[in-house]
What we know:
- The complex is a heterodimer.
- Chain A is of the alpha+beta class.
- Chain A is built from 12 helices and 13 strands.
- Chain A has a 5-stranded antiparallel β-sheet.
- In chain A, strand 12 (197-205) and strand 13 form a beta hairpin.
- The relative contact order of chain A is 0.11.
- Chain B folds into 2 domains: 4-79, Beta-grasp domain (Ubiquitin-like (UB roll), Roll); 88-151, [2Fe-2S]-binding domain (DNA polymerase, domain 1, Orthogonal Bundle), CATH 1.10.150.
- Chain B is 32% helix and 16% strand.
- A 5-stranded mixed β-sheet of chain B has the order 2-1-5-3-4, with helices on both faces.
- In chain B, strand 3 (51-54) and strand 4 form a beta hairpin.
- Chain B is globular.
- Chain B starts with a strand and ends with a helix.
Amino acid sequence: MLSYDFLTTKKLDEALNYLDKFSRVQILAGGTDLLVYLHKESSRLSPFDYLLDISNISELNFVTPVNNYIEIGPLVTHSSLISEPIIKNNFSILAVAAQTIGSTQIRNRGTIGGNIVNASPAADLLPPLIALKAEVELTSKKGKRVFFLEEFLAGPYKTKLQANEILTKIKIPRLSNNYYTDFQKIGRRKALSVARLSLTLVTKIEEEGIFRDVRVVPGSATPYPQSFPESEEAVNGKSIYNIDLEEISKITSNEMVSITGERWSTPYKRPTLAVLIKRALKKIIQEAKTNE
Amino acid sequence: MSKITVTFMVNGKEVTLKVSPKERLVDTLREQLKLTGTKEGCSIGECGACTVILDGKAVSSCLILTGQIGGSEVLTIEGLEVDGKLDPLQQAFIDYHAIQCGFCTPGMLMSAKALLIQNPHPSQEEIKTALEGNLCRCTGYKQIIKAIERIK
Lengths: 292, 152
């Protein structure tokens, strides 16, 4: 039986004090994952004595452009990511990915910070955030630490967050006009679907139609989301006019299997991931050609 | 596990309650406030039977601890009716036979109500999106969508 005391606050300072003063504290934000774990008494929960509710700390709920970055508070809900014009205009893939999460009820409560810290292999926002080179800021009484999101993730359901820290900011560098982005997802059905497989592609296309700074991040393909350097290298420097999509799709599928090994799901995921990378490339190539 | 005192609004009335740290909003509504119109189905946020409107938005009351909602405003199915008169949405559900066993109905109505609060003239696609978190296993979705369409 779970047994704990409940702490809640509207101030970040006070939350950090709680984390400093007490040990074995579980943080609660939107609750769309945590309440399920609590209900099931899931083994994913580390034992805890205190539940610290941060969902009412309004200073952790913001979307603000700062210089060349867009800064997002961890309590921004999936619904807000979809409706916030700054997100739509700068990182439409983030809004598209948020739209595919759960249902209206889940999107109204679930937060970007929770999606990151829970670090599920199927977390829908992680692949686009990694591909956008997002950084996360962690705050404790002792100070701040900043990581690239990709380095912050440490395994399935594991991150580098320390017990005394709160994720306080997500920073995403803005993309210049010659960058193109696409998010592809396949679920068992449209609503409420946990991603069976997704793929995020972010790339620059130089004037002569050459791919540069290519970022390929599949979701639900590996134990936790990570970029695919071989696939990125394979696309890098190719031309939108004569890139061999078949060859690229084989490289991406093989790269997945080289990370996961052959699994029961491989006969499904190998050809499916090949289709997703082809779809993403085709879409971006078409867009780039229209913009010429 | 020490109890917490929480004050919030339910259907326009302020309530102050002592709740356990484990108590979910659906538990408080059904067991402390006897508002049993809100149903508990799957308990993991997938079926939508426990949907209520929290500060204007549809949420699953099985995924919220009551301790989290101090100062908030909750609207449940019991709060739709005004002075003994059904909300037009409730009447439309009756008129369009959008009810069979009735278990999903309160959740359906609250999801639909939340949509109409934000968007009084939704398209059919927007209605479907608003209802994607509400499962119905007997009435059929067509009548429900038709009933909501009549309101706009």
